[in-house]
Amino acid sequence: MDFTLTDEQRMVQHMVREFAQKEVAPVIKDFDRNQNMAPFILPRMAELGILGICFPICYGGQGMDYISMGLACEELEAVDTTLRVVLSVHIGLNSMGILQWGTEEQKNLFLTPQARGEKIACFGLTEPGCGSDVAGITSTARRQGGEYILNGEKMWISLATKAHHCLWVGRTNPDASDPHEGLSAFLVELDRPGVKTGDIHGKLGVRAGSTGWISFQDVRVPEQNRIGEEGEGFKIAMSCLDNGRYTVAAGATGLIRACLEASIKYSHERQAFGREIGKFQLIQQKISYMVQSYEAARLFYLRAGWMKNKGIRNTRETSLAKWFATDASFQAASEAIQIHGAYGYSDEYDVERYLRNSKGAVIYEGTSEIHQLMQAGYALGYRMDASLRCELPAYDVEKWQ
Amino acid sequence: MNIVVCIKQVPDSAAKVVAEGGQVTWGDAPLVLNPWDEFALEAALVQQEASGGDVTAICIGNETAKEALKTALAMGCSQAILVTDPALSEADSQAVSHVLAAAVKKVGNVDLALFGKQAIDSDTGVTAAQTARCLGWPILSSVSVIKAEPGSIHVERSIEEGRQIVDCKLPAAISVSKDIGEPRYPSFMGIRKASRATIPEWTISDLGIDAPKAVVRWPELINPPAREVTTEMISGDSPQEIAEKLVEKILGEKVL
User: Fold this and answer.
1) pLDDT digits (tens, 9 = 90+) for A38-51
2) B191:A63 CB<8 A
3) pTM of the model
4) Mutate which of A7, A44, A51 to test chain B, going by most B C-beta atoms within 10 A?
5) Is B152 in CB contact (< 8 Å) with chain A?
């Protein structure tokens, strides 16, 4: 068993860290306060190649592996969750779905410009009345000749107003005996007639990010824009979540690290009762839990990344990584505030932003409760992963670079 | 234009460097490319983009120094060379300069040798000038702008009195200041290239010189005495009153 990162992985990690720490960290607080996404983020991430990090060069990507992508997520969220959300949505939930399920034509048409960062991608699954209950989706896709007519509302969509493409899930067969099997997935250009998008403000966290809604009213797409077969929408959405959750797990690990680093720094600086507060055992206990959760979360996500590299199905391991890391990041952020005392409660320090940002990931891409049900299901033998018609391709350095 | 950039691997700037048992230690802090050398690499790559040629990064060190060279490759250098020899373990800056000068000569057809203004570990800031002396080349230090012309360069130096503009024939040695431009990040293409690169190793005998002897020795290494600082907050009803109290205290302590 080798826990060493490769030169390539370490250099990617260092490069993404430099970008996030030098260019974003100094200004993120202002954008968070103003509830705006910094306008330079997407073009700069595109220019640096981060938006295509784990795709083959022949599809416009950078040819790195899935572990490098996880490391990038950790580095991005160590500065701000909104940076990692970009990779979760653009890469994890959309582009990796195309890599896994798309036809060659779809890869050329959608994946390549996305991996190059020329087009931004989002994922339309959640609806105003339906989150965890994916089978309850009410959006419809009605076939008419060689086209589909799409209708419905999607809510809590990251990058809704920034994206050019959306991987969108709707119901093609309202009569399917199993409602999961009535869903189909589509790649939709968001400049088509009938598409409306808007931003949602007033969120607790990820305030420097773009979260919004997408409304389709009689949006016509050609049959070629359907990804996968009719009725495969649920499976495709779940595959996308296997990839999105991986990015969330890696990112939440970075958030724990940020809490830990801020807490260590403050514990050395702050004096109470004549000595630095790091000398007190109850502070030490909080720090030690953060160390434990950081290292465990890191091992969880790296294992999932390793499985992706090898082409091994990782739904269970990714779910475990996401559940653990997001819950632990919320706990770490809360304790980081406690260590900082009243200062932690103000935005003079970063830890209050960490707490606000951490809560979202406990909800999206499978709530912690859903992940608990999944883990219990696997353990009790109620749940098993059937093989898919299209599996995520294993990492192949020769073909990808 | 062919450029050599002489780089060094140093403890990370966040490392706590202390003397322990007569030795310098930085604990388990990582070793990184000297941050000042990143500016030299940036300057070299900008020149290469403008007028072609090769950029070669050279580093003296052991196997771990290949990390710094890989960073240079990932930023866009054409090649990287490690100069490594047990005889260099005690090298001082003049010994290093002799070796670097020999390495620059061995690369051959070099127009410019670029350096960072200093290394953040030893902080001598003299390696560029000493190497230039060994090569018999002019040295231009604290350079903030470089414009290359056929056979010569036109540079701006940031000096205490202001900016100095200098024209100089090539070959020349240059140490750059921060004003030269923000160093680029390694690109993914560069990272791919660097991770597959085999970095050639040159020994002292490969350079065709005798091992230079250090003339500077560090007989003893000690930590600076810990400063004892007490902080007192001076309060008062008005800035005037606070200032008066402060003056009294300064005079009382015989600071002035």
Assistant:
1) 999 999 999 999 99
2) no
3) 0.91
4) A7
5) no
